[in-house]
Structure formats: C-alpha cells, structure tokens
Amino acid sequence: MRPRIAVYKFSSCAGCQLQILNIEDHLLDIVGAVDLAYFVMARREKGAGPFDIGFVEGAVTSPEEVAKIKEVREECKVLVALGTCAAFGGIPTLKNWTPQREVEARVYQDLSVIHSVRAYPIDQYVKVDAYLRGCPIDREEFLELVKSALLGKKPYLRAHSICTECKLSENVCLFLGERQLCMGPVTAAGCGAFCPSVGRACQGCRGPSDDPNTRALVKAMLAFGHGPDDIRRRFRLFAGEAEAFQKGVSML
Amino acid sequence: MTRTIKVDYMARVEGEASMSMEVEGGQLKALTLDIYEPPRFFQGFLIGRRFDEVPDIVARICGICPAAHEITAIQALEDAMGIQVSLQTKDLRRLLALAQDIQSHALGIYMLALPDYLGYESAIAMAADHKEAVQRALRLKKLGNDFTELIGGRAVHPVTAVVGGFTRIPARAQVEEMARRLEAARDDVMATVELVSQLSLPKFKPDDTEFAALRHPTEYAVNEGRLVSSEGLDISPREYRAHIEEKHVPPSHALFSSIKGRGSFLVGPLARLNLNLDRLCPAARAALKKVGVTFPNQNTFASIAARAVELVQFVEDSLAIIHRYEGRPEAVIHQVRAGTGAALTEAPRGTLYHSYRVDAHGIVEAADIVSPTAHNAYNMENDLKAFVPGLLKRPESEIQLKCEMMVRNYDPCFSCSAHFLKVNVVRRD
Asked: Could you give the ipTM of this predicted complex?
C-alpha cells in the first residue's frame, strides 16, 4: 500500500504547496510512490482520513483554524509542519507586534465581523512530528523527508546555522564584511545559504538554529551601528514568536 | 421547493473559497461566492515596516505570483521616493515577470483547468492517459521556474529584485543559455495552442462585460502602462483611486471592486488580449489564428485560449529582451525620501495595484493593495449569476462542476484577495 498523504492549507500564501508541484523532475515518481489523497490545490477528489502523513501549510490565525488543526492532528499518523508559517508562524505573525484591534482597524471598517486570533505556529495547539523550514520550503528537503518516511529512517534535516553553508559556498561575509543586518549566525541551515549567495543578508526565514546565541548577535549588530528598531524588525519578520528570537529582541 | 446547491471547497484553485446557491421553483434565488481564506491584514501590518522589507513581505501574499507583488511594490515605492532605475533594470524586471507568467500559465492551463475539459479530477489522474500532455506541462512549468530562478534567484519568493535595482544579475552567458531553452520550448508552446484549440469550451457570452488591462505605447504591457478598458477608462497608476473603488454588496461577504459609476469589470488574460491585439508579436498573431476561437472574445471561458496565446507572446518577448541584454554591473540606487507612490502591473491573473506612503526614513505610513482576484471577484459572481439559470435543469453534480469550471477559468487566487475580505465565513457543512 502506498502511504496516504494529505496537504492542508491554513493561513498562508500556498507557496509551500506549490513547491511540491514545482518538483517537476520527480513529480510523477512521487505520485507513483505515495498517494496524494487529499490535496485540494491539485485535485478535485478529496480523500477522507486517516492519513499516514499530513503536511500542514500556514499559521493558525482564526478560531476556526484552532479547531481544524486539532481535527487534522487526529486524522494524521505523522504530522509535518510544511514551511515557516506552520513551523514558526511566519509572515502572518507580523500582525502580532501591533495591538490586534489597531491592525484590524487599518484594513476593515466593521470590526464586529473580524474574528482573528494571535498568529501562532501549529505546535502552539498540537504535537508536531517533523518540521520543514523555509519560506518557501526547500524542494530537496521535502524529497528527503518523503524518501526517509518511505524507507523508515530519520530524515537528515540540518540544525546548524546558515554560516556553515555560507562558508562552504565561499561567500564573502555580508555581516562582518559589509556589516549588513544578517540573521545567518542564528538561523537554521538547509537552504544552502541561498540569500547571502545572491547578495542579500539572511532574513531568518528558516527560524532559529539549534542553540543560537541571539543575544551575542544583537550586541554585535548594535556595535555595528544598526538601530534597535531595525534589529527588532529583522528578528520579528519570520519567526518572531520563537523563544530564541524573542531572547534577542529582549536585549534591545 | 427550495434547493440549496453548494460547492464546499473549490478545488484546483489557489486559496480557499466556496459557493452556494438557492434554487426555488426552478429559479435561481440567491448565489454567493464565499472566500473563507482568513483575513490576512497585509495592509495593516505593513504600516511601520521599512520600505526595503516591503517587497519581501508582499511576496508572501501569493506563492504563485510573488514576483508580480514584489515588482509592483518596488515600482510603487520608487514612485514614492522619486527613484529612476536604468533600462537594464526595467528589462530584468520584465524578464522576471515574464518568467513567472510562463510558470503560472503552464500551471493554470494544464494542472488547474485542463482536467475538467478532458474529464479527469486532476492532472495527476490525467497522467496515465495523457502522459505526453502532462510531461509537456511539467517541462513548461520547469522552464518558467528555472527562468524565474535565473533572474530572481529563487522560483517562489524571489530575492534579488529590490527597490533601486537588483542585488545580483545573471551573466550574459547564463541568459543566452536560457534563450536556447526558450527557443526549444516553442514546440511545446505551439502544442499547447493546438491542444487548447481542440477543447470544447462552454458557450457563455455576457454582452456587458467591461474588460480592463494595462496598455503600453509599444509593448504587450506587463510592468508598465495605463489602465484602459473596453468602456473608455484610461488612467495612470496615480489616478487609480479616483476611478476604482471597493464596495460591500450584500449579501456577499467580499468587498467588490468596481469602476466608479459603472460596476464590475474583468481583468486577466482575456481582457489583456482583447485590449492589446495590436501589440502582439507576429508569432502570437499566428497563434491567434490557430487557437480555435476569435478575439476580441466576450466568452469568459475563452480565457484558457487567451492564456495559450499569451504563452507564445511571453516566450517571444523574453527572447527579444534577452537579445539586447548586456549584463552590465550596476549599483542598487539608495534614495530615501518621504512621498506617496503607486504602480499598476499585469500579474499572471490580471491587473495588480500597489500604493504606499512613506516618511522621510522610508517607514511605511499607508499601504493599499488590490490583487487581480480582488478586481475580478465581483465579475466572477455576476458571471455565475448569469451562467447558472441556463444550467438549472441539469443534475446537481453537473451544475457544481460547470460552476467550478467557470471559477477555475478565472484562475483565481483567493489567498491574494483575502486581505480585502469584509467577513471571514466558514462553510463546511
């Protein structure tokens, strides 16, 4: 029996689901090896649970989604956070840094009909078995996870920081060299130091690496002349709810 | 007897929407298209962020057309801060948009729309009997993605395009290699036109649809131009708010975009083609004759044919730009000052509007974003209301499928439009 897979969408842009369809070279192999039983963006037929693996894209931002994520947990043997929104809250958490009503009033006139809650990653509400980081997810890491599940082995997902990959790519350091506001030292690897390799400082989209020293990084950023507001915003872009990044912000 | 027909979770579209209608005594009494994507507050949380974060943030409105949101935000911010970029930067932005257009149209034609016409529930199910078409779809999609990666660094949420230029540009040799792949893809693109010409498109011709799209003095408009319509609209990006408004039309829950004093309008490939036939390149004009329907065309189901013709145009436009590309190193322009600016572009799904006001430090004070699906939602619902009465004698499953086809034909992106929702409604019963 091919393992049955479900792909769910919560508050998100659909980019991580699209990354699955973007694995063009292997897509037909994937659907041969697993049964994409529930994948609304790709299929009209909607398979019913239980599922062997559930991939959840998006953060939880509404009361309906709080109830739904619990149902999803019930019907999936293994639950995977598909991308940074599900894993750390992602871009939806940007609203968390302004009083809720204020941010809502900027977009909607009649607030009585808006029922939004603080944006959280899915593990705020349910147990998560594996995390695929990144905004968007890395296609290779998705394949690694699916292959490992089929083989019954532990997937190799990196816990060290972006700096390691940046050095392997022989990039000039954007933080120490150009003194750009780079999150690489405290952000988990796995993207191949993608942004620094094309001239952009790391924005921390993959969330904190294992045991990161965010306080030391903030001290260094301040010493390089970056303003506290700029540093705070950088820590609160993709994973501001993560404890390690909050620790960094607490230095400001 | 009152009968309620529902499509609870619209499949093969981007984002979450449902539709319900009430039929009484053989007459359609009510119809609503509910977008139950949770509200996402982009215009709310952009306030207080710095200008250089905006393109990265707005990319996350949509995973399918992130480059369009990035480019539009960048151009609106440059308009606000008085930044003039080089012709090379404009060319690279156009290539980035075209690359994403190719990816998005391949996805829209083959994976979202085509299964309905060939009688399958998905492109995955189609693969067994139509392996060649599915493989062609994957080749075209991969081409679009690789091309987007070459210019933008990454296919989903590109990173090299910034306010004032690009942080990294491709080498001349790399784009020449891409040109060879684009030339080789001409066969796949023409095979797509051929395939679409054989489809039996439902006939639906509302006679009063107002089509709107950008128009450029010489090009097939992508990133620049004036917003024109079949009813005589002709405005610059800064004039947008004087002519286009969103209003709440009960009982629907979405905010509907309309042209002041008139009503709903349609944006997207069909509108672009209808209004820009004289801007097509010779190869696209030849494709126009082979695609099985004539243009200008009022039938909204002809959008799939418009997408196929546009694929030809996008490939040829890309090649023309690549041929003049020099790959000159250029510094990113840094110029921060207070101001208000606006931009209109053609995203894969239609006209996209961004506007920002920034202070002297480049901090955003106001943001206004209207996506193609937000522009189209009102028209989508009006189309459904006009289309459904002719279907009411059909079995419920057929009514559902036909309505889904109509919505999928718009290739809607409900995540994109979620920031404009008035109410978040969940219907899953």
From this structure: 0.96
